[in-house]
Structure formats: C-alpha cells, structure tokens
Amino acid sequence: MKADFVHLHVHSQYSFLTSSVKVDQLAPRCQELGMQAVALTDSHNMFGAIRHYKTCRSLDMQPILGAELNIARAPNGGIDHLTLLAANLEGYQNLVKLVSAGHAYSQSHDTPSILLEKIAENSKGLIGLSGCLRGVAPQKFLEEGQEQGEALLGQLKDIFEPGNLYVELNDHGFVEQPVLNQLLRESATRLGLSTVATNTVHFMNEGDATAQLYLECIRRGRSFDEAQPTHHGSNQMYLKSPEEMQRTFADDPESIKRTLEVAEKCSDLELVLGKPMLPNFPVPEGHDTGSYFQEVSEKGLESRFEEFKKAGFEFDETTYRERLKRELGVITSMEFPGYFLIVWDFILEAKKRGIPVGPGRGSGAGALVAYSLGITDLDPLPYNLLFERFLNPERVSMPDFDIDFCMSRRDKVIDYVSETYGRTSVGQIATFQNLKARSVIKDVARVMNISAQDAQRIASMIPEKGPGQTYTIGEALEIEPKLKDLVQNDPQIAELIAQSQKLEGLTRHAGMHAAGVVISEGPLDDYVPIFKSDESLVTQYD
Fold this sequence. Notes:
Blueprint: H1 23-32, E1 37-43, H2 49-58, E2 62-72, E3 79-86, H3 89-104, H4 116-121, E4 126-129, H5 136-144, H6 146-159, E5 165-169, H7 176-191, E6 194-197, H8 209-220, H9 224-227, H10 242-248, H11 253-265, H12 289-311, H13 317-333, H14 337-352, H15 368-373, H16 410-421, E7 426-434, H17 437-447, H18 452-459, E8 464-466, E9 469-470, H19 473-479, H20 481-489, H21 491-503, E10 507-519, E11 530-533, E12 536-539
Helix pairs in contact: 1-2, 5-6, 6-7, 8-17, 8-21, 12-13, 12-14, 14-16, 17-18, 17-21, 20-21
C-alpha cells in the first residue's frame, strides 16, 4: 500500500558526524515503510547523491536529489539553512553549481556557504523548502518577528519559479515549533504559498538518539557528560513512518499529503550514468580528432621501427601495420581517439621534462597503439598480448591506462594538464574515511571518559582479517571470546560496544584520492559537484 507521505529533508552519513543514517539503508527502509520516494539533503554537499540515486533505482523507487545549503547572512555574518531539491536535469545542474560555489568561493572561512543572491541566479528547476529551525525564514521569524519573517518568505518566493517554494513545517518537540508553525502557516496563506511537513532526519530509528549524541560528541571533541546538559534533548529527528508523521501533524493533513506533490514535481530527473564525457583534445588545423590520432599513431610506429633496426631486431612490418590498423579501427569506432591523445600528450610532456614514467602495466600493455604513441614501452607482439583484453567493442567500457609517474614530480604533470585544459576543468577525486571498528571504539571510549590505554586494549580485540583490514564489531563478537566475555560482564563496555556498533561504517570526512585526476570539457562543476582540498578542486563523487 502506497503511503501518503515521503521524506523530503534527510541527512545521511555524508553530513559528516551529524547523521547516523547510512545511504545504502535509507531507500530500503523507506520502502519497508510504504514510501515510494525519498530525498537526500545533506549539509551543503552531494557526496552521496549518485549512490542514493542508484540505490533508489535498484528498488524501483524515486530518488529525490537535494542539499541543505548554508546561506551566509553576509560575509562572516552567520549561517542559516535552505533546503533545495532538483525537479529536473536543469535543477540538478543548478544544484551542482550552487553546492560547488559554496565550497570553491565560500562566504565563510570555515564553512561552505553562499549568499541568497547566488540562488536567485541559479534557481531554475529547483524547489525550495524554507528550512528547519535553523532555516533562513524561521530564524527571521524567531529573531525579528512575523513581519520581517514574512518579508523574507516573500523574497524567497520571488527567487524560485512560481509554485516552487514551500514553507517547511517541523515538529521535533521543541517549545518554539508549535508557535513558529502557526506563524509560518499564517504568512504562507497571505503570500499564497503552500506548506509541507518534514522531519529533518538525522538518525534512522528513535532508539538511535543516544548514538547520535555520541556522534556529535566525536565531532565536537567533547565527552558525553559535557555534552548532555547542552544537548537539545529531542529524540524525534528520525526516519518516522508515514503514520507517525500523520499523528504528529494530525491538525494539518494537507501538509503531509503535499509531500507527494513535491515528489511528483521531482519525478522528471533522469541522470545518464556510465556514459563517458570526454574533453576535446586540441588538434592542428586541417585535422579532426580521428585523423590526427591516426597520423601520430602511424608516425609513432615508424619511430619504433627505427628503434628496432638500430637494435638489430628482426620484425615483420606488415604484421605490425595490420595490427595497428585493426586497433585504430576499433578505437575510432568506439569514439575514444581523444582519450588516447590526451594520455599521449601528458606522457610525452612528462618525458620531455625528464619526469620518470613507468613502462606500463595492466591490460593497456596489450595495445600496439599505446606502444606506438609511447604511452607504454612494452612491445605486445613478441609476447602475444591481446589488444581485446584492453578494449573490446563487445564489452563497451572506458579504456584505462595504469600510469606511474615519479612520486616527487607527478604534481608537475598535473600542473601541465591544468594549464592545457584550464584550472577549473581539472580536479582530483574524493575519497572517504570511515569510522572503522577499532577507530570507532576508541572514539566512543574517549567520549565515555574511558582511558586511552583501556580503549586501545578493547579495540585490539577486534581481530585482523587481512592486511589493513579488520573484522566488523559484530563479527568480532562472534569469533573473539574475550571481547564477548567483557561485553557480558561489564555494563560500561557493553554500552561502549553497543554504541560503537551503531556508528561503525559512518563517514568521518572526505579527502583527496592520491592518484585519480579528472579532466572535463569546460568547468568541472558543469558536470559534478566539487570541493576544495589544499587549493585543489576535488570531485564530490568518488
């Protein structure tokens, strides 16, 4: 039976150390509760967007992609929130731009943020929700009264396309919310705006509220005893069922049903995943990409022939030429000449600068084209290496060269690529550090004021699975009798392990992949959300 409600304001593990909702579990849980769609609205980021999209699609559910943006009142003048949802592809692209702008050109020194004016410039295809208690409009109501709050709602209404701003209502048990909700309803009626009920989800089940507080303590570097007196005390920010939401808003059923209206408006978003979007390689006048690729490949093979002759090797030119012709035909038919030219160009530049480059490894060593171009330095023919292992029309996938540069000078190669394609078009790739079994036990132990020595002793009871890998806490409880005994006989350690297990696997922070580099045709944020790490642009998608 389809529910008359969907969640439109959900934070996941990618709202780092503020939510214990795991992206892979979000859509399945919503489906269990009868909901046909669910939004992901992490804190000024889209790190989990594609994973959420794929998970929903695999379950025949509707993914709604969004973000809770940080809105700067003025440069360094405080941060409020505004929730945005992508209604269609244009809205998704605008959301990517806005999220990226907050990281690349933040109005705050330590928090990604943008000004409202930036949203006005990029609002097409976006649906706005006025936000939780920290939202731009609720804060205005609370601090300056209804008249000023209503004026700000009117300003937000003008920013979005007609009918695309909704006044968000929350009820987490805070004393301000019933009064604020009434003021918001009154102002919405006068402005011709619709209200919508959300729950600002930060944990999956009501019983996870304590674990959520532990997570906040890890983020703030505080003990549980220090944090508890100042904590908001609400255990209601969980993924409520439609029935629970209907009871919470029993006096306003239309705001519950209107979540379906918002979901319907977001149903046109279709992303094309897995299709390569290659940047254009600049070719000399009189050539297109394919003809230039053929020319430099054939010239490269002739250079290899000269090397063979100098070295006194015997070889059959016809065999090499026929193999090259066949490979060129496959590469051209699959529309990958540009990829080979890009790789050829920066490897050639590295060698010109005297930067050591590896001879090649992996299936790419089976390509005579790569050997001809100097991408690899291994002749595949004497070793009967197959080109088809590298590139095969029957199994369409991106070609993938494993390239090794001198560690101390690889940054010079990246600089060259940035100069060639534009600094806004070149970035690196996100990686994520998760709370693994041993580290999360030590984190939670610190919050519980358990000594570092005892925490280390308990964490070391998680056995190793292999190099750099350990068993999960759940697995360790099955196979490590000492840990099991401690949990059964010591209530404090039982609490430590229980809370650690709830937080295990969450994401601590994003970092930058050591090797992966992305080049786009035009600015990266035309395609993917970005953030900055040590002044480098980094894609938010891993």
